Amino acid sequence: GAMSQAAAKEIPQEQGEDGSRRSGWGLLVTAGVGGTLVALYAVATPFVTPALRKVCLPFVPATAAQIQNVLKMLENRSGSLVDIGSGDGRIVIAAAKKGFRAVGYELNPWLVWYSRYRAWRDGVHQNTEFYISDLWKVSFSHYTNVVVFGVPQMMPQLEKKLEDELECNARIIACRFPFPCWIPDHTTGEGIDTVWAYDLKRSRGCETKSLEITPETES
């Protein structure tokens, strides 16, 4: 009786230990698979969902036609270039290949790191820079060429910001959506590939202001 009771007690303990081992392996496998899924989600999510911005600005890659239209608007232009909301860096990289010193601002860190990798892969990393930054907290005053992939909700406020910050020789190139008040000096492309170029000296009336100031300085 005592032996049988002891044996009876030992058997559940052995089964319990074996069950614990199985449970432990199960937890390890679950953790491993879960960790892999989390890692994949962390990498993939920024490419399909919008980053957090003052105005929701989803990442939609520029098409080949859009890139060519932007480059067309940059012909005979010089100076520094900035892409506001640079995404995966394709506009910045394309501009760098044309000889521009090009900079991209993007709030999504995954896209910024990927942009830096692409610039390195394409051999233009020395002529490009990518920053993780909120566009509303950056001054664009020292850029002469500005590329914007925006959404309608942000364009009025961005129009005012750029007009306040940029010099008269700046050109702003808007993709997909035009600015609400400025009249474009050049337009190319069709549909979603349409690109509008604004020469700030005309939008702001810099030429008129300079004519008004000249007689006063001469007198």
Automatic annotation (TrEMBL):
Keywords recorded for this protein, A-Z: Membrane, Methyltransferase, Mitochondrion, S-adenosyl-L-methionine, Transferase, Transmembrane, Transmembrane helix
Membrane topology: Single-pass membrane protein
GO CC entries: mitochondrial membrane
TM regions (residue ranges): 25-44
Molecular function via GO: protein-lysine N-methyltransferase activity
InterPro entries on file: FAM173A/B (IPR026170), SAM-dependent_MTases_sf (IPR029063)
Annotated compartments: Mitochondrion membrane
One of the GO biological process terms: regulation of mitochondrial ATP synthesis coupled proton transport
Keyword NAD: no
Residue ranges, annotated region (Disordered): 1-21
Family: Belongs to the ANT/ATPSC lysine N-methyltransferase family.
Protein name per its UniProtKB record: ATP synthase subunit C lysine N-methyltransferase
Originating organism: Rhipidura dahli
